[in-house]
Here is the input.
Amino acid sequence: MYQSFVSTALDSVWDDVPNGGSVFEVSTQCPACFEWVEIFIDQGDSGRMVQDCDVCCRPMDVLVRWTEDGEPQIDVRSANG
Ligand SMILES: [Zn+2]
Here is the structure.
């Protein structure tokens, strides 16, 4: 089960990354330590990806979706179950 640690803020967008896409910075709450961390989502990313928490270094299982406005939404769970 993915918990609803849905992203709340898109802090910044960079448009001039080398692959020509955009990178989105999304704030989310770590499912393991409950600290707020930023995850970087490339425009081409979708589906599941694993990111390590910046605070506790435990892996987060991130599910990436895209809104009709082209903004990423993420659900996060602990990769350890
Ligand atoms: Zn953490």
Summary: The first strand starts at residue 10 and ends at 14. Residues 10-78 form one domain. The radius of gyration is 12 Å.
